[in-house]
Write a structure and sequence with these properties.
The structure holds two protein chains of two kinds. By secondary structure, chain A is of the alpha/beta class. Chain A has 16 helices and 15 strands. The termini of chain A are far apart. The two termini of chain B are 32 Å apart. Classes of the chains: A alpha/beta, B alpha/beta.
Chain lengths: 428, 448
């Protein structure tokens, strides 16, 4: 019996003694051409921090809240909700594709406000998402599939580093509008309005609802009003990213003001929410994606399409975080307690901002550090340049992202002095 | 109301019947009769098999209690027809709940390290040469679906060139319907089927399968069910797997295993992983999407793992670094609760033994239901052969009932199953076996 020997570039074939054709694999891999991916710019900071052995090291990279001892903080209302869950011994059956209904409903109400016409009329759909990232991605995929008017998403300059790859992987293109003024370390409102006025109609514009990441610079309410009027005039699709409701000012209604104002102006927004920071549920991945629709019937159709997008991604969402959040939002005493705790976290950060500025003055810094207290939320855009950031990492073991963003949540009364000293050293 | 949630909540079906003009769906919750809104029913027929639609008139209602059996459920049920949280899972949950040292911090992008390593070890075996040679990688994922999706996204970007959306992806005929959507949404343009189920002989169409593999373009991706094929319950024998592997090796076809039932199929983790381990021993580079939904009963915690087996550590490292980027834009990092439960269980010899025992309990009940159903059908003299019921393995069985017979089962006997004739053995209990067997007998003898 003669068998053809297959000439291939990938393998070598040989006849074994039993006259069966057997092949051995070549030593090269399917993956020889796969490049090494760079470490994630934000999460990679924590990984570098972990490897550092300096006892004075500080992790000001990822936005995870720390108490004044630098420890992760599990909210008391979360512990209570967990105890309630453990005692009930519930089953572990699949959630519906759109998630836990009590959670999505409460999530919509939290964002929109209980008196919201959009909420009461049911002209919205909210699906549970994998925290903020997952919710953003569902929305991005939805827009890619159903928003045919444009492929362009306009991000503020700068924006959260992960926004760009999320939208890109969803198949959309990224553009930018001016936002942060490095000269004043505050909002370049005129620049923003100018750029937004020129955005082609029916493009997608992404706005940070509060506590802008990474700059901490938020528009004032009068500025939001002008922006709403402008996006309405330009007929833009507004995508709000709200990852810090309650965490920015300490007041959930105040932090949701822009979202609610836009909806009241007749702008049917889409919205992504995260409970990672404001409930400390980081690793439980609790989040939601909402589409404000013309009416409840449209909302049903949108919902059906969102489910078609979710099913081939992960089938249905994880229960634990959503259930904790739902119990907190829907149990009056726990909700009250949560509001107090979220304000406590926001207040501690505001306190650290003040202390950092006063410590920098004490160090003798001649720079204007007012932006540190003007900015709001977890992050502060220090204004430090990449070389200065590099020195802070190498010489002082103070870790932050290259853009000079620090997470104020990582600052404590115990280390604020060291931080001020180090910043002064690299900026004097 | 959707079929699954309707049936999940139904404890019995009340059929209210009277001539009238309005159609309405009725079902019974645990706490009383609920009448759902008319909009859920389209006039003239039931919106989905599961909720019965009847004319409703307020004046005269006749109450009939109808017995029903749900053989369409996608999860394990006890002999009482109830969901079952594994005792070991309850135990570990209480441990976690009581551990004040645990917090809710982000997991790394690729997941909980103890979970990843142990999950892959479960699939590949303690003595796996790939593990010893440090050429495996793991990505904690949102269930088996999430693992499939990450794998699919990676393959679309990096397999057979870069961003080659034209690489054919083959799924079995039939397969779990979500396979198609996962690979389509990941960007692949060419999803094809390979022969698998032979309806005539109610078994594996091995020759058809091998022929498809011979004809498939080189480098095609093949989605293989590691065990307990969904929906047919028909697995290749070890000898048949060897033949499949030989063709795949020669044709340079990429094996992507879907392993959603390890332990659940035969009751033995090792036996159910035989095919995956054989391919590894034959030197394949492969992916294996693992789900812990069924074998840990952790359905709603979304615990899955993508195991990557490569030629060497360097290749695997680069693959994982690119998978990290994919994860980061999909869900950033995975949920911690389910992974903690699995990791805690797998790393404790005692808990691990308890878990294997729990898994065997589930598998044994399914095996018992199979043999009981078959013996009843054979005793009744139901036309046809019924050995496929016990030949098949896992949660599902392709009964061989045709669509008309299925319709009879649903409409006349209130036994709910898929139009394909697929039943979930977990829906059978000692209390409903007789009823189901008799009903199948009726369907087969009355309808052809």
């Amino acid at each position: 019996m003669s068998l053809p020997c297959l000439e291939v570039t990938r393998g070598v074939c040989a006849l074994s003694s039993s006259l069966t054709l057997s092949c051995s694999f070549p030593s090269s891999s399917w993956w020889s051409h796969v490049e090494m991916g760079p470490p994630d710019p934000i999460l990679g900071v924590t990984e570098a921090f972990k490897r550092d052995t300096n006892s004075k090291k500080m992790n000001l990279g990822v936005g995870a809240y720390r108490d004044d001892n630098g420890k992760p903080y599990v909210l008391s209302c979360v512990r209570k909700a967990e105890a309630m869950i453990a005692s009930k011994k519930m089953d572990k059956e699949y959630l519906p594709i759109g998630g836990l209904a009590d959670f999505t409903r409460a999530s919509a109400e939290l964002a929109l406000g209980e008196n919201s016409e959009a909420f009461k009329s049911g002209r919205y759909v909210t699906v549970q998402g994998i925290s903020g990232t997952g919710s953003l991605r569902i929305g991005a995929n939805f827009l890619q599939r159903f928003f045919k008017s444009s492929r362009d998403v306009y991000l503020p300059k700068p924006s959260w580093g992960n926004h760009t790859p999320i939208f890109r992987d969803a198949g959309l293109q990224l553009q930018a509008y001016r936002y942060y003024d490095p000269k004043t370390c505050s909002l370049d409102f005129a620049g923003a309005m100018d750029d937004i006025s020129k955005i082609p109609e029916k493009s997608i514009i992404l706005l940070h609802a509060c506590a802008h990441n990474p700059t901490g610079v938020d528009p004032r309410q009068e500025q939001w009003k002008e922006m709403a009027a402008m996006v309405k005039k330009r007929n833009l699709l507004v995508y709000f990213d709200m990852a810090y409701q309650g965490f920015a000012s300490g007041d959930i209604n105040r932090d949701a003001w822009a979202v609610r104002h836009f909806i009241e102006q007749g702008i049917n927004i889409v919205l992504s929410q995260s409970y990672a920071k404001n409930m400390g549920l980081y690793g439980e991945r609790a989040g939601a994606f909402t589409v404000i629709c013309s009416d409840a019937e449209e909302a049903k159709r949108v919902e059906s399409q969102l489910k078609i997008l979710i099913r081939p991604m992960y089938s249905n969402p994880p229960l634990n975080g959503a259930r904790i959040a739902s119990i907190i939002l829907n149990t009056p005493e726990l909700r009250k307690e949560w509001l107090v705790e979220v304000k406590g976290m926001a207040d501690r950060i505001i306190g650290m901002r003040t202390q950092l500025v006063s410590n920098l003055k004490k160090e003798g810094s001649s720079h204007n550090w007012q932006h540190i207290t003007d900015q709001i939320g977890m992050f502060c855009f220090t204004g430090l340049k990449p070389e200065q950031v590099e020195r802070l990492i190498k010489e002082f073991s103070i870790y932050m992202t290259k853009d000079g963003r620090i997470s104020m949540a990582g600052v404590t009364s115990g280390n604020v002095g060291y931080l001020a000293h180090a910043i002064h050293q690299v900026t004097k | 109301m959707r079929l699954n949630s309707c049936l999940r909540q139904c404890l019995g079906l009340l059929v209210l019947r009277h001539a009238g003009t309005a159609w309405c769906c009725l079902f019974q919750h645990g706490h009383g009769v609920c009448v759902c809104a008319p909009v859920l029913c389209s006039s003239g027929h039931a919106p989905e098999s599961g909720c019965r639609c009847v004319h409703l008139d307020q004046s005269l209602w006749v109450l009939l209690v109808v017995r029903k059996v749900n053989l369409g459920v996608g999860a394990y049920r006890t002999d009482e027809g109830q969901p079952w949280v594994l005792p070991v899972v309850r135990k570990v949950e209480q441990m976690i709940a009581g551990d004040g040292k645990l917090n809710h911090e982000y997991l790394p992008i690729l997941g909980l390290p103890e979970f990843r390593a142990n999950a892959s070890r479960i699939a590949l075996g303690d003595d796996s040469p790939a593990i010893k040679e440090n050429r495996i990688g793991s990505v904690q994922s949102l269930g088996g679906t999430g693992a499939l999706r990450i794998g699919a996204e990676f393959l679309r970007r990096w397999y057979n060139g870069t961003n080659n959306t034209a690489t054919p992806v083959y799924v079995s005929s039939p397969t779990w319907e979500n396979h198609n959507s996962v690979f389509l949404d990941a960007g692949f343009k060419d999803i094809r089927t390979y022969h698998y189920w032979d309806a005539a002989k109610r078994g594996l169409d091995l020759q058809g399968l091998l022929d498809d593999m011979e004809k498939a373009p080189e480098f095609s991706i093949f989605i293989l069910h590691a065990c307990a094929h969904n929906p047919t319950g028909t697995d290749p024998t070890p000898d048949q797997w060897k033949q499949i592997a030989a063709v795949m090796k020669r044709r340079f076809l990429f094996p992507f295993f879907d392993s959603a039932y390890q332990g659940f199929a035969s009751g033995s983790l090792d036996k159910d992983a035989w095919a995956v381990r054989y391919f590894v021993s034959e030197g394949f580079e492969l992916f294996c999407a693992q789900s812990f939904s069924k074998n840990f009963g952790l359905y709603n915690e979304r615990v899955g793992n993508l195991t990557v087996v490569g030629k060497d550590a360097d290749n695997v490292q680069r693959v994982l670094s690119q998978m990290e980027k994919i994860v980061r834009t999909t869900w950033s990092n995975p949920p911690s609760q389910g992974a903690r439960i699995v990791a805690t269980t797998l790393t404790s010899p005692q808990l691990f033994a308890e878990w294997k025992d729990n898994v065997k309990t589930m598998a044994d009940r399914v095996l018992l239901m199979r043999s009981e159903l078959r013996s009843r059908l054979e005793s009744l003299g139901t036309p046809g052969t019924w050995n496929h019921i016990t030949d098949q393995i896992g949660m599902f069985s392709f009964t061989g009932l045709n669509p008309k017979q299925v319709e009879y089962m649903i409409k006349e006997k209130h036994i709910y199953l898929m139009a394909s004739g697929r039943i979930n053995m977990c829906g059978l209990t000692t209390k409903n076996l007789d009823y189901v067997a008799k009903s199948i007998h009726e369907a087969v003898t009355k309808i052809q």
